[in-house]
Amino acid sequence: MTQETRRRLCIDFGTSNTAAAYRVGLAEPVIVPLGQSGPAMPSAVFAGEGTVVVGHDAVHRRVQAPDAYEDSPKSRIDEGEIELGDRFWPIEDLIGAVLRHVHQTALRHSGLPAFDSVILTHPDKWSERRKGVLRRAAERAGISADRLRIASESLAAAWYYVYRGHDVTGDERMCVFDFGAGTCDVAVLIRAGADGFTVTGSGGDNNLGGRDLDARMIRWVHDEAAELDPELSARLRAPAAAIALADHVRAAKEALSDTAQAVIELPGTQRTLLLTRREFESMIAPFVERAVELTRDAIARADAAGTGPKGPVIVYVTGGTSSIPMLQSALSSVGRVARIGDPKIVVAQGGLLRSTNVDVEEAGGVPQNAARPTDPPRSVTAVDAAARRIAFPTVPPGTVISGVHARSGQVVRAGEPLATLDSPSGRLTVGAPVAGTLHGLDLRPGVVAQAGAVFGAVGPADLRPEQWAQLHRAPAGLTAAQPPQHTPPPQPRTAPPQPVGAPAAGYAPPHPGTQPGHAQPQAPYPPQPGYPPPGPAGGQQVPSSGVNTYGLAGLIVGILGFPLCLGTIVGTALTIIGINRAEGRRDALLMAALGVNILGTIAWVAFGIWVLVSG
Ligand SMILES: Nc1ncnc2c1ncn2[C@@H]1O[C@H](COP(=O)(O)OP(=O)(O)OP(=O)(O)O)[C@@H](O)[C@H]1O
Ligand SMILES: [Mg+2]
């Protein structure tokens, strides 16, 4: 098997989320769409009636039997067996169920018959015993030992950093700071010659993660609720309410990385609490201080070991919790903070990048010094190969976007519906021409679709806006949504268009905290920065009133002017202009104007004939 054809899958099995990516030869890594609204899926398991369901299915079933549900099998890896439902389950069976699901999803998505190697990543500090559990879990998942490789998360992240065109040069050190849901892992790496990295120090805390922040916020919610109503706090502790509250709190926390305030719904009540970023920051300050301290300690340990340079530190932040702005600014006191790629998936992508070394390495051991990947540095040409700008194909004149079912950042499969269009000949579905992450999506209901207009890009998750313009174009697929005989009447052109910035039908808002009815500090569908707006690339806006003014004038003049023959003539003329302007699209207003003026004309013609006949 040569380097050019080897098919690899990397699975980053995390405390709360599992992400995966695969790669064929030296092509761009492809992220496996595991999540419902993002690339990762929950690592959760639900064990009921002798079977184990995983991911979103497990999350949905947890209310049925909370004691059959475990949201984080990884954090219970030391327990050997855990009790779920009415029996004990070996932990490797539960982790194996998650890995099996991911492996099978990746095979389906890639269309490949098998992967030549499957790489599982793990925290640097994991003992051989834990890695042994991971290996046995892989076996249970049907991943044979000869294909299995394991790799440290920090090295995977470091290679991703290099793959994206950055490097650690001169005296610099890289500190990979991975703040996930369950743990905070810190590793200090230096370049080992030109060909590898060496870990010179590590640290962190296995009991510090995003879930601790969630727990702190839940405490705050209970305190606030108790002040509002002493009964309320007790009601929020009921099992179903507690589960829902945990979800609302986590969503609010994630929203606060982008917004100034978030609303937390109190389940089972009509009440909500507003949490500002400032309050949130004062709540999490001790955790942030602790994370910075862990980072300093790891660097100090590396310095004390006396190996390698002691120059400037690059703090490469990975893991979902590192998205918190306050944390990033606190870490800037330690070194230059770098955030490259989506922090929740860089490990899954980076685990694919080590080349020959990883393939000859024994599954049992991961050398700290790994070979430099043979991948060429990322260039526009490499991006080009995997990404496309998407444009409307030839569409009938007057075709209007009626619904948008996708959003920027979403992972799509080739052919997956992105939007529906109402055309004079019926409803059409627009599908993605290639698979990947959607970028800069510019589709809004009420806008006329113009053939050839670019409305987004599909490609790797970290495709940068400045690269979009250089991509090849690909026309979106277009299919009839319904057979013409059942086609519903086209969207009337007089229907008020959706305001720019309004969420599209079927559009999933990024955070529950921004759902309608909640405080919305930011537009839920913001314009995409750097992406060409409507104009040569986007659609053409329907006149903002949305009302066919000629049709309306034709109706009014036709009615009021009927007593004068001229009124009917002018009304008819205005109606005809209105019909022309609507490019063949008829709506109730136009039909009414037409009807009134036809009746007026018939009445005047009959009157003329009667005058002539009667002399
Ligand atoms: N935008 C955000 N702001 C703040 N926290 C976030 C954000 N996005 C995700 N998180 C948090 O990050 C955590 C998940 O991150 P990640 O997927 O990296 O963890 P993990 O890999 O499952 O955990 P670990 O690495 O500890 O095993 C969750 O606690 C989640 O709430
Ligand atoms: Mg992780």
Automatic annotation (TrEMBL):
Keyword Hydrolase: no
Record's compositionally biased regions (Pro residues): 485-500, 523-536
Chain segments carrying region Disordered: 479-543
Transmembrane segments: 550-577, 589-613
Pfam families xrefs: HSP70
Coiled-coil ranges per UniProt: none
Family assignment from sequence similarity: Belongs to the heat shock protein 70 family.
Tagged with keyword ATP-binding: yes
Protein name according to UniProt: Hsp70 family protein
Keywords: ATP-binding, Chaperone, Membrane, Nucleotide-binding, Transmembrane, Transmembrane helix
